[in-house]
Amino acid sequence: MKDYLIALTGVPGTGKTVLARHLSKQAQLGFTTLSWVVLEHGAWSSYDAARRSFIVDPEKLCGSMRRRYSRGYIVETHWLGVFEECGLEPDAIIVTRTHPLVLYQRLVRRGWPKSKVVENVEAEFLGVIVQDVISSQYKTVTVLEVDTSNADPETLSGRVYEAVLSRRIPADFSCCRDWLELLTPKEQEILLNILSTTT
Ligand SMILES: Nc1ncnc2c1ncn2[C@@H]1O[C@H](COP(=O)(O)OP(=O)(O)O)[C@@H](O)[C@H]1O
Ligand SMILES: [Mg+2]
């Protein structure tokens, strides 16, 4: 698997970095995040102070992606479209998912402002990132949805490794969860309270 390119995406706090750390060891792949590539190679054109984010220069970014990260890497990103933009085809797309109430606890523990916590819990609940995966043009790529709500990271990573390599997707890794269907009425009520406390 040394020459694979793996796209790793998911809402913040859903376990991308933890999974990548294990998987990169098991699969002998490098690991980087898209933000790091942008900063390392100065692949931005300006800085939006209000949103505290860099405005990406796609030409510079794609140059760096193609030169350094087109093979042998796990690339963590919130912007799955970067691969299409840069003409790269990942061998697998992995999307991490987390039960919204578990995610809420994780993000609160990070000490994030309430509004940022709520925004991300809502994004996970609505499956915002999963929509990008569904609409991505790579119909032949292995897509895995990995639920990290309550799983031993090393075991999970081993299973992901096996699935990517064999291209056989176990039922619990098949895309895509609908939390609305999976949450109990009580959990829905708690979640609704969380989501309606700030706007
Ligand atoms: N497989 C897992 N099982 C249980 N908890 C996990 C798992 N993966 C991650 N976590 C928890 O979630 C937290 C956030 O994970 P992290 O990898 O930093 O998320 P991300 O990179 O998506 O923001 C970790 O600190 C850990 O406590
Ligand atoms: Mg991370």
Describe the structure.
The chain has 199 residues and is an alpha/beta fold. It has a single domain (5-195), classed as Rossmann fold. It contains ten helices and seven strands. A five-stranded parallel beta sheet has the order 2-5-1-6-7, with helices on both faces. A two-stranded antiparallel ribbon has the order 3-4. Strand 3 (44-48) and strand 4 form a beta hairpin. Helix 1 crosses helix 8 and helix 5 (100-109) packs antiparallel against helix 6 (114-126). It is globular, with a radius of gyration of 17 Å. The mean pLDDT is 93. Magnesium ion (MG) is lined by residues 16-17.
Q: Which features characterize this protein?
A:
single chain; 199 residues; alpha/beta; Rossmann fold; five-stranded parallel β-sheet; two-stranded antiparallel ribbon; 7 strands; globular; binds adenosine-5'-diphosphate; binds magnesium ion
- Quickly give the CATH architecture: 3-Layer(aba) Sandwich
Number of domains: 1
Shape: globular
Mean pLDDT: 93
CATH topology: Rossmann fold
Question: How would you characterize the largest beta sheet?
Answer: 5 strands, parallel
Number of helices: 10
Helix content: 40-55%
Helix-strand category: alpha/beta
Q: What is the first-to-last residue Cα distance?
A: 45 Å
The succession of helices and strands, N to C, reads EHEHEEHEHEHHHEHHH
Q: Strand order, main sheet: write it out.
A: 2-5-1-6-7
Bound molecules: adenosine-5'-diphosphate, magnesium ion
Return the CATH class. Alpha Beta
Q: Pick out the low-confidence regions.
A: none
Beta-strand segment tally? 7
What portion of the residues fall into strands of 2 or more residues?
15-25%
What is the C-alpha radius of gyration, as a whole number of Å? Answer: 17 Å
Q: Give the CATH H-level superfamily.
A: P-loop containing nucleotide triphosphate hydrolases
